[in-house]
Amino acid sequence: MTDRVFNYCAGPSTLPLPVLEKAKAELLSWRGEGLSVMEMNHRGPLFSQILAEAKADFAKLLSIPDTHAILFMQGGATAQFAAVPMNLLGDKGKADYIVSGNFSKIAAAEAEKYCKVNIIASSADRDFTYIPKAEDLRPDPDAAYMHYCSNNTVFGTAFSYIPESGDVPLVADMSSEILSKPVPVSRYGLIYGGAQKNIGPAGVTFLILDKSLLGKAMDITPTQLNYSLTEEKDSLWNTPPTFSIYMLGLTLKWLIAEGGVEEMAKRKKERSRVIYDLIDNSSFYTPRAEVAARSDMNICFKTPSAELDQLFIKTARAKGLFNLHGHKVAGGLRASLYNAMTMEGTYALAEFMKEFERENV
Q1: Domain stop point among 201, 236, 257
Q2: pLDDT per position as a tens digit, 121-149
Q3: Long-range pairs of 253-259 with CB within 8 A, sequence gap ≥ 24
Q4: Least buried of 87, 164, 294, 308, by fewest C-beta within 10 Å?
């Protein structure tokens, strides 16, 4: 077997090795039942157990109250950019959006198809290198909801605070930082995201939804995107991404065994500190995000030239350090240090960065 590389991809991202090994061991026969998860009847007792355990473990990790439902859907966070307004607008025709990066910008543009969008703050004026300050937000008390993206994978920024929305439901796209730290779920009307960045493979979208927001879907809402129907049918309106949910479930069990979100919060700070300290003490590497807005999950930076950026990517790959290219919108370089990234992988990147600088100054 070829040695595994270190994968710094923003998504689909690296998975915990114990999770992959467990999936490998159970691939042909899940828990000795004689069939693979991929072959299971999604409405049968075996997959029902997998689904129930995944929801229970999710609830345990984030202390999700009974007021909130856990839903598994498809289409990624991108589908939710349309699903959110279609399900939450109710009789209101406007919603507040904080535009702090690429995906919140796309989410706001999608919502404009269904309602009036109030951009209550934006960091586009400085190319999304910072997060708008809490005191600069201008929320509308009559909005149906307030939406923001808590961690911006493209530009490497993250909110250090929870926006205050008053009586307006707060909605957060947490695709790239879910389960990396404790979250006061009761403060949110909806938390959603794609699993493929921090808690599993591509194919499944998670939602943590305040049940009081159910029953507001617009008539034009596709059945597949209807929250009330999804909740009523226990995320089984149609055939769900069974194997992706199974893998997500294994990842949740791994997180619990490793110490939960409190331990993940500690580890992410340790990982990011290694790389940011190196960048800050270098005249060769330049960070993209302002210090106060830096993401612990996605570190975006660059070398003195685009040509050196490409050489960095090529040379790193040859040494087993994969997917260090920046997003096509931002360019440059990016190291995604999600929950499954080890300190070994973090130090390997740091050593390579030092070596590359020495050879190219």
Answers
A1: 257
A2: 999 999 999 999 999 999 999 999 999 99
A3: 253/53, 253/57, 254/16, 254/18, 254/19, 255/57, 255/61, 255/179, 255/199, 255/339, 256/57, 256/60, 256/61
A4: 164
